[in-house]
Amino acid sequence: MDAHRPDTVLGMSLAGRRCLVLGAGGFLGTHLCRALMEQNLPVRGFGRRVLFQDAIEGIEWRQGDFLDAASFPAIVAGCDTVFHLIGATTPSTAETNRVADITANVIPTLKLLDACVANGVRRVIFTSSGGTVYGNFPVMPIPETAPTEPISSYGIAKLTVEKYLAQYQRLYGLEYRILRIANAYGPFQMGTKGQGAIAAFLPRILARQPIEIWGDGHVVRDYAFAADIAAALVSSAAHQGSARVFNIGSGQGHSLIEIVRLIEAIMGAEVRIKWRPARPVDVARNILDIGLAERELNWRPQTSLEDGLRLTLAWMKNRLEG
Amino acid sequence: MDAHRPDTVLGMSLAGRRCLVLGAGGFLGTHLCRALMEQNLPVRGFGRRVLFQDAIEGIEWRQGDFLDAASFPAIVAGCDTVFHLIGATTPSTAETNRVADITANVIPTLKLLDACVANGVRRVIFTSSGGTVYGNFPVMPIPETAPTEPISSYGIAKLTVEKYLAQYQRLYGLEYRILRIANAYGPFQMGTKGQGAIAAFLPRILARQPIEIWGDGHVVRDYAFAADIAAALVSSAAHQGSARVFNIGSGQGHSLIEIVRLIEAIMGAEVRIKWRPARPVDVARNILDIGLAERELNWRPQTSLEDGLRLTLAWMKNRLEG
Lengths: 322, 322
Known about the structure:
- The structure is a homodimer.
- Helix content of chain A is 39%, strand content 16%.
- Chain A is an alpha/beta fold.
- Chain A has one domain: Rossmann fold.
- In chain A, helix 7 runs parallel beside helix 9 (256-267).
- Residues 1-11 of chain A have low confidence and may be disordered.
- Chain A binds chain B through residues 98-99, 102-103, 106-107, 110-111, 147-153, 156, 159-160, 163-164, 166-167, 170-171, 280-281, and chain B through 98-99, 102-103, 106-107, 110-111, 147-153, 156, 159-160, 163-164, 166-167, 170-171, 280-281.
C-alpha cells in the first residue's frame, strides 16, 4: 500500500479537483503544495508571502491577507477542497494577546467557511493542534476521544474552530476533516516565529551558538516530519467515512534533551544550552495516538526522527551556506 | 439543611464580601441580586438597563455596555466575587451572526477577566448553557463529564468562554465556577428576545392568542425555576472543592407539549398552537444530571414545575393587568 496515493486507495478520486491551500507559502503549506502537485492536482495557493518560491513553482498563487475576508469568495471559487493551514498567531503570541488571536484566526475562519458554503466548496481540511487541544491529558499516547481541555490560548482558539467546522457540516453539509498535528519539523521551517524547537535549534548549532531551552528540557513532544504530515493532509482530502478528526504525529515521544543529544550524535558536535524558565502554558507531555489515522487514512509516518533530523539539517546547511 | 445559606454550610463565608452582578437588570440577574441581598451581602449591579427597578432596590447600580471594556476596571474594583450573567446574544441571534456573537460575548469576557485579575477579584461565576454545550449527547440525564459537542453557535461561544476561565485560573489564580444552566423560567422573564418558551407562551395564552411551537413539540428540555438557579449561583460563590463545573437544572425532562398541557390544566383553558418548522440547531433532548451540584453545592431545586408555572403565571398576570 502506498500512503501517497489516496486517490486510488480510498474510494474517492481527487483527480482533476482543484485544491486551495491557505498558507501555501509557509512551512507546511510548501510541503502540501508539493504533495498535491505530485498527485497532478491543480493547486491554488493563498497567503501573505511565499517563503520558497522555487519549491512551489507551478501553483496558481494568490497573494492576500487572511484578515481581508472580502477576498474570500473569489479565492475559494472553483475550488473543490480547501486546506486551511493559516495560523496567524503562534502559541507565544496567542498568549500575549488572546483577543488578537481570536480576531486573527477564529473570526476570519468563520468568514472563510461562509465563503466556502456560498461557493460550493466540498470539503475543508483544517490543521488543528494535537500538541495543545488536549491540555494535560495524563495517559499517553492520547487518542482523539480524550477530553479537550487546552491550557493555552492557542489550543482554545484551535478547538473553537473545530467546533464551528462540525457545525457547518451539520447545518450546511460542508464536509471537513480536522488534523490534530503534533510538533511539525522539517525543511522549509524557519524557526523564527517561536514555533518549532528543531528549526530554532539547528541554525544556532550550525553557527556554534548556544541554544535556549525553556524549562528543564524534559517536556516530551511528538515530532512529526513535515512531508509525512503533507501525505496525511492529502489522504484526508479523499477520505470517506464517519471519522473526521485525526491525530497526526509519530506516535512516539521525545524529550528536548533527547532531541539535542540526537542532533549532537548526527553532527558529531557538542551543543551548549542556555536554560530559561518554564512557560506555564506548555504541557508536560504530549504523544499522540495515531492509530485512527493509520487505519482510516491508510497513512503512516515514513520518516524516522533520525532521518528527519538529517534531512532537515542538510536542508538548513544548504540554505545557510548556499 | 438550607440550600439558601451557603455561607454557613459550605466552609467559606461570604459575609461582607462585595458581589458584582453583570446583567443585574435582567431576568436571572434580578433573581440573583435578590438572593444576594437576602444574605445581606453588598451588591453592585452592572448592565445596560434595569427591567424591574423595584425588584432590585438597594443594590449599587452601574449603568454601562458590555462592549465598553474601558469601564471594566472601575466596575470590578473592590468586588470579591463577579457573577457574569451577561449574554449579549440569544441562541437565535448567535446563529444569525456568529462573528457578532464572538465579538459581543467572548471578546468582552476576556477583557473582563483581565480586569478581574488586575483588580484582585477572587472568583468569577459564569452562567454557561447546559442546554447547548453538550449538543446531542444520547444518554439522559447528561453529566458534566459528557463530551462537549455543541451544535449551536450559542453553545460554542459559551464553551469557548469556559475554556478561557479554566486557563485564567491556572495562569493567574483567578478562581471560577461554571454553572451550566438548563432552560430557565420564572418571574421577571420577558420572553421577548426569543429566549424562554414559557415566558413566550404565557402572555399569548393570557391574551387568548395562539402560541407558536417550532418543530413537533416533542423536544424535551430541563426547566429550571429562576429562584432555584439564583440559590445555586449563591452557593457556587462559597463553594470550596476541586469541582468547578456544575449542571443546574431540575434533573427532569418535559416536552413542549407537556408544558402546554400543564399550563392548560393550571389555567383551565385550551391553548391553540401554530406549528412552525423545526430549527436545525435545536437538540432533540436535554436533561441535566444535577447530582454533582446537589452533593457539592448542598443545593437542590425547591420548586416543582407545576408550582413554578403557577408562580410565573401569577407574576405575568399581575404584570399585564397591574
